[in-house]
Amino acid sequence: MSSPRVILQGRGCSPGEFEGEAVVSNQPFGFWQGIDPQTGIVIDRRHDQCGASLKGKAFVFPFGRGSTGTPGIFLEAVRNGCAPGAIVNVKSEPMIVACALLAEAFFKVSIPIVDSLEKDPQELLRTGDRVRISGTSGIIEVISRV
């Protein structure tokens, strides 16, 4: 028996398309001192995803926690090929959106961001789910479940 298809509609904050694995957190996240830009691994010991790799994955978290240093660390992760491939937030803050816009401007790397979903993504998405994300249309589709 197959799982029912899950499609979420939200607001596209940064254009682009992504398909891959999701990493889901219930905690806010700050890239500054939260991720190792050389590896893409979460290094914030207080975070529920500490030790997890965000490299090339859809990172689902409620909202950003951080400073104006966030885009700098994020861009270093993009330069090293270790940044998330997409971001899903309950509500995206300007510094998180700036990360994706700067990745496109500096490195021509598209990182879609979606927020303001009709349902709470943390309740419907699980770490390991395979998802398809459109930052242009704001649609997230669960392709397969763990």
Describe this structure in words.
With 146 residues, the protein is α/β, with parallel strands linked by helices. The chain has one domain: Phosphohistidine domain (Glucose Oxidase, domain 1, 3-Layer(bba) Sandwich), CATH 3.50.30. 19% of the residues lie in helices and 26% in strands. It is built from 3 helices and 8 strands; from the N terminus they run E-E-E-E-H-E-H-E-H-E-E. It has an 8-stranded mixed β-sheet with strand order 1-8-7-3-4-5-6-2. Helix 1 runs parallel beside helix 2. The longest helix has 14 residues. The mean pLDDT is 95.
Whole-angstrom Rg: 14 Å
User: Helix count, per DSSP?
Assistant: 3
Return the CATH topology: Glucose Oxidase, domain 1
SSE run: EEEEHEHEHEE
Count the beta strands: 8
N- to C-terminal distance:
14 Å
Fraction of residues in H or I helices: 10-25%
Estimate the strand proportion: 25-35%
For the record, the CATH architecture stands as 3-Layer(bba) Sandwich
CATH class reads: Alpha Beta
How are the strands of the largest sheet arranged?
A: 1-8-7-3-4-5-6-2
Largest sheet: 8 strands, mixed
Structural class of the secondary structure composition? Answer: alpha/beta
Mean pLDDT: 95
